[in-house]
Design a protein that fits this description.
About 25% of the residues lie in helices and about 30% in strands. With about 260 residues, it is of the alpha+beta class.
């Protein structure tokens, strides 16, 4: 297994830290709040063939987490995407009317072709035969709610009512043994994949230049009917007298659904 500070590392934050410490590539550590959120994901695996820590991280860990590599002017860093963010997580407000700035270009939407509201994961792989011992499907089918192998997801249900059944590609997780982790992975993936998201950008005053990818902000823009919309910062660019910020909304069927 992977070891960190002399003990076996299982939670995602410790596994990432351990693999990075063994790699020749130096990355800044995850922010403490991001590391804390990742401790609910556990990994259990062995590497039987020669592989760099960097390769293990990219192949066995990152695909199952809301974390990605970001390449920017300050180098490479790991970015945590809080797909469950709410207004309480926002560190700033973007409102061109009251805070200055202007929208840069049209609002775009993620592709509806990418929507999935049912996902299946095979996990707990045997080391000798390579067979998977466990399987979980998460989706909108309330008729299967009594099955130990099927979890009903509220975001999947809302997505199904809007788009119909959208089955995503099966997921094989060779690094996951823990059912709770498998469910946590499917949960964040479905939150992100079960709906379309707005993509927009603003040219803002320079006091926004401290923002970094992964930060959570709220956007109020009456021209496009947004009021306190929770958004993730996707990228930040700096120019003379302005800060260009690209954003993506974190829509929430559950909070906005009719009661």
């Amino acid at each position: 297994g992977i070891r960190h500070n002399g003990t076996e590392a299982r939670d995602a934050a410790s596994v990432i830290q351990s693999l990075l410490s063994m790699s020749s590539m130096r990355l800044p550590p995850l922010a403490p709040e991001a590391a804390e959120r990742l401790r609910g994901f556990n990994f259990d695996f062995y590497v039987n063939e020669p592989a760099s820590p960097w390769a293990v991280l990219r192949q066995e860990v990152l695909p199952f987490l809301p974390v990605s590599l970001h390449y920017g002017p300050e180098g490479v860093r790991l970015v945590y995407w809080n797909v469950h963010a709410t207004q309480d997580d926002a560190i700033d407000v973007i409102n061109p009317t009251t805070r200055g700035g202007e929208r840069a270009g049209p609002v775009r939407f993620s592709s509806a072709d990418e929507i999935a509201n049912q996902l299946r994961m095979r996990f707990a792989q045997r080391g000798d035969t390579g067979a998977f011992l466990r399987e979980i499907t998460t989706g909108p089918d309330r008729d299967q709610s009594a099955s130990s192998r099927y979890d009903v997801n509220p975001y999947s249900v809302q997505s199904f009512h809007r788009y119909g059944l959208r089955v995503g590609r099966p997921i094989d997780a060779t690094s996951i043994q823990d059912p709770a982790t498998a469910r946590a992975v499917l949960s964040w993936m479905l939150k992100w994949m079960s709906q379309t998201r707005r993509r927009l950008a603003y040219d803002l005053p320079q006091h926004y230049q401290y923002l970094r990818p992964g930060d959570v902000v709220t956007v109020t823009d009456s021209d496009i009917s947004l009021s306190g919309a929770v958004c993730l910062v996707r990228s930040v660019g700096h120019g003379p007298g302005r800060t260009h910020v690209a954003l993506e909304t974190v829509p929430d069927f559950i909070r906005t659904a009719p009661q």
